[in-house]
Amino acid sequence: MSLPVRIHQLEVAYGGRKQDAVVAVNGVDIEIGSGEFGVLLGPSGCGKSTVLNTIAGLISPTAGTITVGDQVFFDKSRDINLKPEKRGLGMVFQSYALWPHMTVFDNVAFPLRRRHVKREQIASRVGEMLELVRCQQYAKRYPHELSGGQQQRIALARTLVGKPAVVLFDEPLSNLDAELRIQLRDELALLHSEIAFTAVYVTHDQAEAYGLASKLFVLRDGRVEQTGPPLNVYHAPATEYVASFLGANSWAGEIVGREGKRLVVDSEYGIIESTSDPKGLGVGDTAVVAAYPDRIGLQRDPSGAGVVVSKRFGGAAMEIVVALGPANDDRLRIRRAADLVDVHEGDRVRLVVDPADALVYAGRPTHASDREHRPVPLDVQS
Ligand SMILES: Nc1ncnc2c1ncn2[C@@H]1O[C@H](COP(=O)(O)OP(=O)(O)OP(=O)(O)O)[C@@H](O)[C@H]1O
């Protein structure tokens, strides 16, 4: 069984009403349907873990409501705040938190024993779970006799054996090396398709988010900036912040023409046409152009605004960095298949971007250094 999770107008301020309080979550709305895999994605400090911990009941919000199925977990206005142990949620953390003195079997059996499930039933449920996480051969081992990946599989089995309707995940794969992370991500996706539970999963890793989410929430400074299936969010980022967080390059420009849905932008890197059709932008407005690294082509051009600063072999693609004329900090990262690249370090280039791949937004680019959330001091509340 799985249940929907609804969060409405959630606010969390660390430090209460004190002057130096930090607003970590600022009016978050989240709806994850029954059996959906919801992923909260965002840079460090944007409030992901704080949201997760309020669902678990480990942090008390300053405002808002949290409902799971028909049960209200938290409602500030009605003074409802269900204790963590009454919420019946499963949790998987970054640290595996297995009991070191118990065997794998006993670790996984623990939640069932606490509920006084019958011995034969425990044996079959634990066996089933260990098979699902492909660890049946380790039943008699102790945690220290397992690799990190195996320990995390056991932690997962221990959480899922009790059939929780909702499982919270806080960066559960981030302690594992890259290859194992991909493997476990795929196994988790498979487990989710076999066992019915609603997932709320926190990560800052885009690949993990894309690979797991049925619904993605991109967070920024304690707010949800965009929600949707990963494919939609990736192909149509609602704001330059989202595009940029998902890896797009962005650079400044001004709109100099519009023909129907086609915008012409005079940008730092030359004229770019776009069919992204941003709302409310017209000729004369400042704008920011964004494009993913694999959607930017380069053409040698002595009058081009960009200069190739570096070109390196990056496995499947060449990694190229282009900067403006006298090279400054404003750099574009471009990834192209080697056979598509005909430029060298020092070449002047112009960018070739298909109008469908050139995203245009109002305002100025957010640069990487601006993206990490800096705590906003709370306006002193009376
Ligand atoms: N106990 C605390 N007291 C004061 N401020 C806190 C506390 N915990 C978190 N914060 C602040 O609240 C904000 C959100 O933190 P949170 O841990 O939710 O972010 P996050 O997106 O999960 O980041 P990360 O990916 O680095 O874990 C940050 O600015 C953080 O510094």
Count of individual helical segments: 9
- Describe the strand arrangement of the main beta sheet, using strand numbers: 7-8-9-3-10-11
What's the CATH topology name of the largest domain?
Rossmann fold
- Percent helix among the residues? 10-25%
Shape: globular
CATH superfamily of the largest domain: P-loop containing nucleotide triphosphate hydrolases
Quickly count the domains.
Answer: 2
Give the name of the CATH architecture of the largest domain. 3-Layer(aba) Sandwich
- What series of H and E elements makes up the topology? EEEHEEEEHHHEHEHEEHHEEEEEEEEEEH
- Structural class per helix/strand content? alpha+beta
List each distinct ligand once: adenosine-5'-triphosphate
Record field, number of beta strands: 21
Q: Uncertain runs with pLDDT below 50, 5 residues or more?
A: 368-382
Characterize the main sheet. 6 strands, mixed
GO molecular function, one term: ATP binding
Pfam family, one: ABC_tran
Protein name: ABC transporter ATP-binding protein
Domain ABC transporter: 5-246
Structural commentary:
The chain is an alpha+beta fold and 382 residues long. It has helices at 48-56, 104-114, 119-132, 148-160, 178-194, 206-212, 230-235, 240-245, 368-371, and strands at 5-14, 22-32, 37-41, 63-68, 71-75, 80-81, 90-92, 166-170, 198-203, 215-220, 223-228, 249-259, 262-267, 270-274, 286-291, 297-300, 306-314, 317-324, 331-336, 348-352, 359-362. It has a six-stranded mixed β-sheet with strand order 7-8-9-3-10-11, sandwiched between helices. A five-stranded antiparallel β-sheet has the order 2-1-4-5-6, with helices on one face. Strands 14-13-12-15-21 form a five-stranded antiparallel β-sheet. Strand 5 and strand 6 (80-81) form a beta hairpin. Helix 2 (104-114) packs across helix 3 (119-132), helix 2 (104-114) runs parallel beside helix 4 and helix 3 (119-132) packs across helix 4 (148-160). The protein starts with a strand and ends in an 11-residue tail after the last helix. Adenosine-5'-triphosphate binds next to strand 2 and helix 1. The site of adenosine-5'-triphosphate (ATP) has 14 residues, from strand 2 and helix 1. Pfam families: ABC_tran (PF00005).
